[in-house]
Amino acid sequence: MFDDGPGLYLATSALALTFLSYCRKYWLNRLCPPLPPGPTPLPIVGNVLSLDAARPWLTFNAWKSTYGDIIYARLLNKPVIVINSEEIAKDLFDGRSNIYSDKPQSIVYEPFASDFNTALLPYGDRWRLHRRMFHQAFRQAEIPAYHALQLRSAHKMLFSFLQDPGNYPSHVKMFGASFIMSIVYDYEVKAEDDTILHVIEKYVELIVEALTPGATVVMETFPFLLRLPSWFPGATFKRASLECLNAGHDVKEIPFQHVKERMSTGDAAPCFVTENLNRTRLSDKDDIVITTAIKETAAIAFAGGVETTSSTLLVFLLAMVLHPEAQAKAHAEIDRVVGKDRLPCFDDRPALPFVEAILRETLRWCPVFPFGAPSATTTSDIYKGYFIPKGQDHTVLAKVANDPDYQGLLAMTHDETKYPSPDEFKPERFLHDDGSLTSDRMHLGFGWGRRMCVGRHVADASLWIAMASFLAVFSAHKALDDHGMDIPVIPKFSTGLAIHPEEFPYRIVPRFSCTSETLKHLTGLEQL
Length: 528
Fold this sequence. Notes:
There is one protein chain. Helix 8 (195-210) crosses helix 12 and helix 12 packs across helix 13 (324-337). The N and C termini lie far apart (103 Å). The chain has helices at 5-31, 56-67, 86-94, 97-100, 125-138, 147-163, 168-185, 195-210, 213-221, 236-264, 272-282, 287-322, 324-337, 353-365, 456-473, 516-523; strands at residues 70-75, 78-83, 375-377, 381-383, 386-388, 391-398, 474-478, 506-510. The protein has a 4-stranded mixed beta sheet with strand order 1-2-6-3. It has a two-stranded antiparallel sheet with strand order 4-5. A two-stranded antiparallel sheet has the order 7-8. The protein is an alpha+beta fold. It has one domain (42-523): CATH 1.10.630.10.
């Protein structure tokens, strides 16, 4: 007869431990507050089949009407918490920034050359180094030093509109590229086919095209797709990854080496790169770490700045074409304050509240980053009775806008309780009855808390001078058909992480007898 006492004891102990573990988990779940409400996920795929892959924010808007301002969903294996309320976003990202200042990490960042993007870095020493470099260059006190560059770039844009009014996407892109390249690399972009400009544009285009929300979820769920050989049939993600890696290398190295060469000959003027390299020489810190950070922050400063600036100016032009009454009010204000013998300058800004209101309404009507940047929690949190889990695997999205060509859905900038008739373009909503500006500066698109966009001050200044300069010289109208009738404009927007209006028919009309000689006199630019 066998003695099975020890085996029976071990089996009984294992069962008891399993039972106790189950009881503990069950009890903790009962004690833990519920997750935020949301659609019931399907096995494996979660809620991904309900998602508009091209414009996922539209789906989140639809869910808002059913589940409220804070929603829990699962996209394949990715838990997502979506915030549709400005109040909640401020409570969490401003009021509890110690919890919500981290960023979710993804296996796609490194293979798609996005692991050096400051906006995506986890909260830590590397992010602090990036942030410190940006803050030194782009804090509000430094912005007046860039006004001359921004003004010159705006004036060059006016010449481009006068000489080739039909090529408006190129003109607004060159405006952003011109002053940002000067600020970051002390480099003057003279033509659209500029070699260094092409390097940076290629990187931005590849990243925006490759890292759509839908593609990211698929690659995170099936990581083997990134390990396929590039020649393998259907290895689309792998081939896109290789393109992004090559572009990522070039965007960091080529402009940086241009500055280094100019510094070696003593021909480099102060700029973001030279200032940071000079600080490095005076410090005892690791040169490799600092130099790498300079390359990374410089590339991101340009890539992020040009995309957002040009896209927002395209929204502005679309709004002017669709809303001539707002444009007419801006013209009248500029004529009254500035006159027609000179162009607006930054000193005029306080006296042009309606132009300021147009800028704010442009940012509200259609922010070019519908999601903002996703966040992650450093620890679990309880908010309004809901449990917000800890961890990098939970993404917190503060969705700031809905797509203007999709009417009737609410989001932060289209919240009817704060912005009545939100789909209408009404600059007056930012003005008091006496014409003075309200306190709402429309900074929703720049984020909150410790991860707020550090370039918001330079972006604000550049957008204002571009809009004011354009309105002083030109008016934008619908294009005319062969019978002299207006051609209808139906707004359509691109898809992806960043959006912009697709090309639309329009015409530019100088507001007075304007020639190149007239503009040279008004701007003081003799050579372009």
